[in-house]
Amino acid sequence: MSLRTPMRRVLGAGSAKSGVHHWWVQRLTAVAMVPLSAWFAVSLLALPSLDRATVAAWMGQGSTALLLILLVLVAAWHSRLGLGVVVEDYVPGPGARTLTLVVVKFVHVLLAAAGVLAVLRVALGGAA
Amino acid sequence: MPDRPLSPHLSVYKLRYTMLTSGLNRITGMGLSLGLVLLVYWLVAVAGGAPSYARAARLLSHPLMKLVYAGFIIAACYHLVAGIRHLVWDTGRGLERAQSERSAWLVVIVSVVLMLLVGYGAWLATARTP
Question: What is the value of pTM for the model shown?
Fold first, then answer.
């Protein structure tokens, strides 16, 4: 049985080679989350205190800022892909499903941007 | 909805514990998405200065939040270990029924050990800084 659509057969077009993109990025971000989450857990628990001065000094270090930005970006990406699959599985009806997917995507872009901006403000000295 | 069975058609199969370990991976992942919201809220509060951090700290240090953090530790440890099992599956290994039943137990045992370790670390950290 051919999995190509009638339109594809008529046009003689082959695979767009993008079928595994979602699958692959979900795995890439999963692998990246292993060291990032381990680093985050260990450094958070190693902080001598969680008052603002201590946390801001920690966030201000270049290596911390870099890893926090990567953590927020990779976690947001992985979360967006994962929640997207959940929405595709359980939200009935194409209209509601598409709308939910758009909302999920927007919220994750917002979270990623807000997280990166916050880390940069502290690391670059813009925070009060 | 199309008039045909659609995945994941949960009601069709007899419940097996390998289904539970798989479903738990999804549920813990959804929970961790909320953890991301909390992480970003915390980062934004630090960037917002002392008054904004004091406001956030009142919420984040509420006694009931301890339950939320415990939930995140449990979810993160489980999702991490179960996710590594998925990555092994992705290489085509361990997909036989007996193997996946064994690895289901392994995931539960390893993630519970990890939860206890991280939980102990968190308890030590809070004991150090009340």
Answer: 0.88
